Every structure is written in C-alpha cells, then in structure tokens.
Amino acid sequence: MCSGAGQNMAAIAEENRRQERLARERAAEIARQEAAMQAAVAGQQAEMARLQQAQVQAEADQQAKVAQLQVTEQAQQAQIQQMRDATNTASASLRVLASAPTTSAPTAQQSKTPKAASVKTTNPSADLRVGSSNRGAGVGVNLGG
Fold it and tell me: How would residue 3 be classed by pLDDT, with cut points 50, 70 and 90?
C-alpha cells in the first residue's frame, strides 16, 4: 500500500507540474495577446494623432487659401472701382464738352459756282435700225433678223 500511495503522490505531483506548465503557457499566451493589443492601441493612437495633425494642416491651408482669395477679390474690386471712376470721369468730361458752346473761329464758306448748262450731244445714228423690223439688229451676216 505504501507503494500505491507513493505512486499516487507521484501521479499527483506529475499532475501538478502539468497544471503549472499549462498555467504558465496560458499566462504567456495572455501576455502575448496583451502586448499585441497594446501595440494595436498604440498604432491606432499614432494614426489618430497623424490624422488630427493632417486635419489641422488642411484647415490651416484652407484658411490661407481663403485669405489669399479675399486679397485677390479686394484687388479686383479696387481695379473695377478704378475703372468705374475713370469711366465716370471720362463720361463727365464728354458731357461738359458736349454742352459747352464751340469757341472756334469762323471759317470762310466756299462759294458755289453755278454749273454750266450741260449741252446734250445728239448722235444722228442713235435711232437708226438695220432692216425693216422695229426689233433690234440681228447677229452675223444676216442683219435683218
């Protein structure tokens, strides 16, 4: 019976060692999973920080573009106003010139010479016809039509 109890103790000790080995393996697996999870969390936090920085940069770029467009718009508005002012000034000057009396010196008028009566030249052969009909002259050798 002693040997049975010794075998029983050896079996219990063996079972304890196996249980401890399984516990260590499970603890190591849990530690690996925890490390992987922490690495994933750190990666996600780094990605979030990068995205936030990119968003801040994009907003800053957009604000700079808006400011640049506002400056361009103001310059264009100033140029348009300058052109309006120049047009209004020219228009006012033209109105003043149009309403002002002319102060130019009188010029001599050209005298109109009477035209000589035109003499009608008569051509004695203008009404002559070849042949006996009143129709126009013929063509070629047979002029009679």
Answer: low
Instruction: Report the C-alpha gap between 40 and 65 in whole angstroms.
Output: 37
C-alpha distances in Å from residue 23, one per residue of 15, 31, 34, 42: 12, 12, 16, 28
> What per-residue string of b and e applies to 8-44 under the rule 16 or more CB within 10 Å gives b?
eeeeeeeeeeeeeeeeeeeeeeeeeeeeeeeeeeeee
> pLDDT tens digit string along 54-107?
999 999 999 999 999 999 999 999 999 999 999 999 999 888 888 877 666 667
Residue 65 tokens, joined: 């573009």
Entry pTM: 0.42
Round to whole Å and give the CA distance between 45 and 31: 21
Structure tokens at 101: 């009396």
Q: How big, in percent rounded to 5, are the helix, strand and coil portions of the chain?
A: 70, 0, 30
Maximum C-alpha span of the chain: 178
HSE toward the beta carbon, residue 116, CA cutoff 13 A:
3
